[in-house]
Amino acid sequence: MYPWGVSVSLPDQDKKKLLARLRRAEGQLKAVGRMIDDDKACVDTLLQISAIQGALEKIGGLVLAEHIESCVSEALVHGDADARQGAIDDLLDVFGRYGRFGAR
Questions:
Q1: Ordered alpha helix ranges (H), the chain
Q2: In order of start, what are the domains of the chain with their CATH numbers?
Q3: What sign does the dihedral 90-95-98-101 (CA atoms) show?
Q4: Which residue among 16, 31, 74, 96 is least crowded, i.e. fewest CB within 10 A of its CB?
Q5: Rounded to 5 degrees, what are φ and ψ at 55?
Q6: Are 61 and 14 a contacting pair, CB within 8 Å?
Q7: 104: CB partners within 8 A, 6+ apart
Q8: Neighbour-count burial for 73-95, b at 16+ CB within 10 Å, e otherwise
Q9: Is 8 exposed, middle or buried (0-12, 13-18, 19+ CB in 10 A)?
Q10: Is 3 a residue whose pLDDT tops 70?
Q11: Distance in angstroms (rounded) separating the CA atoms of residues 86 and 82
Q12: How confident is the model at residue 7, as a pLDDT?
């Protein structure tokens, strides 16, 4: 799709932050499993699930922002008509599938 070799290459500090968020969400997900095993209150379990969803939305928003700032930007500036349209189509697909992401 992006023939000039653009890939998401986060700065190390951003990558560390994203990985920390993912590890936190992973811990929350394991906690939900334990809550279900231990027959914890439904409301408490649902609140934990909501926290996981929020964390994943934030992570997705950060990855999307990086994609726009790197891959999409490069396609719009340096790509041919097919590359530009492909980048736009990708964004429309992402927005259509995921609907919303948290802002930075």
A1: 12-37, 42-67, 73-78, 81-98
A2: 13-98 (1.20.58.1000)
A3: positive
A4: 96
A5: -65, -45
A6: no
A7: 61, 62, 65
A8: ebbeeebeeebeebbeebbeebe
A9: exposed
A10: no
A11: 6
A12: 58
Burial class of residue 48, CB neighbours in 10 A (0-12, 13-18, 19+): middle
**More confident: 101 or 43:** 43
Q: How many CA atoms lie within 13 A of 56 on its CB side?
A: 12
pTM of the model: 0.73
Mean pLDDT confidence for 46-71:
90
pLDDT at 104: 44
Tokens 């499993």 correspond to 33
Distance of CA 12 to the CA centre of its chain: 17
